[in-house]
Design goal:
The protein is α+β, with helices and mostly antiparallel strands. It has nine helices and nine strands. It folds into two domains: 143 residues, no CATH class; 65 residues, no CATH class. The protein is globular, with a radius of gyration of 22 Å.
């Protein structure tokens, strides 16, 4: 009896000391307990600094925190920066030119495969995991196929510009017919350098003038701003079967997760087990169309 009591008291003391140490550690690293899974939920900026240090990057945060566009890109698309060691994240938040993108893409180990009639190109480890997920899906009579052909995988800077314009121009026309913009407004924003054009679109969206394809949400949930797409890093794949929960589970088991809120077909190769994502600064949110893993900012 005496021994049992002593063991219990020792256990209480040990757990008090241990949890105190954990809390002190959490305060020092900017992390908090992740109640649901018992895993640590690390703040995204701490996770980012860890990645930059591990990869010996001089640019410690990938993005310029004083720039409103870069802050926005980081918060909307930032999950891509905490990917597994097996793949390379983009070195910056916003690629400024086509040649900057080409230069980065040349440093990648890539693989190309014909999938459902489309030539898909991804970073090697991302492709390997996608093919393994497809094989697992077939065992359950499911399929994982590219949405909109080759564009589901690799994209060039020019592709991201063309996609941006496919939303930008119809929205300019729409808001003119609604009387919210004048011909002069439209002409002026069209002539701005790309960076300022993006900034102006985001300012107008903050006032309720949205530029997505149905003018109901931000253009960034519809297409990426030029030079910012995760597809430029060959780590994103758009999936036709995205609304099948089982397909999403299989993709997740192979390191593929949806990381851009409201972009339902878009999966990002993180290459990490799902239970490790909170420790990499990502938090799971539930939307009407399922779950997304987004930066914990
Ligand atoms: Zn996509």
């Amino acid at each position: 009896m005496m021994k049992q009591w002593r063991a219990t008291i020792l256990a209480i003391i040990f757990s008090a000391v241990f949890s105190g140490a954990l809390n002190a550690h959490a305060a020092a690293t900017g992390s908090t307990d992740f109640k649901e899974t018992g895993k640590k939920l690390v703040k995204f900026h701490s996770a980012l600094e860890n990645v930059a240090a591990r990869r010996k990057m001089t640019n410690r945060t990938f993005c310029d925190q004083t720039d409103a566009i870069e802050r926005r890109i980081l918060s909307d698309y930032g999950a891509i920066f905490v990917v597994a060691e097996a793949v390379l994240p983009p070195p910056v938040c916003v690629f400024k030119t086509a040649s900057e993108v080409n230069q980065f893409q040349k440093t990648l180990k890539t693989a190309a495969e014909e999938i459902s009639g489309a030539k898909i190109e991804l970073q090697e480890a991302a492709m390997r995991s996608l093919l393994a997920a497809r094989e697992e899906a077939w065992l359950e009579n499911l399929d994982i196929t590219p949405r909109a052909g080759a564009e589901a995988g690799r994209r060039s800077y020019e592709d991201t510009l063309r996609l941006w314009n496919s939303r930008f121009f119809p929205a300019l026309k729409y808001w003119q017919t609604r009387g919210s913009l004048t011909v002069e407004d439209a002409d002026a924003i069209f002539k701005l350098p790309m960076r300022q054009q993006i900034a102006t679109v985001l300012e107008w969206e903050a006032q309720g003038m949205f530029f997505s394809s149905n003018f109901s949400k931000s253009i960034l949930y519809s297409v990426a701003a030029p030079g910012t797409s995760q597809h430029l890093a060959l780590l994103a794949f758009d999936v036709n079967e995205h609304d099948n929960e089982r397909v999403r589970e299989i993709l997740a088991r192979h390191g593929w997760f949806r990381t851009v809120r409201n972009d339902a077909p878009h999966f990002t190769f993180l290459g990490l087990p799902e239970e490790d994502l909170p420790a990499h600064g990502l938090q799971k949110i539930s939307a009407f169309n399922g779950e997304f893993w987004i930066p914990n900012l």
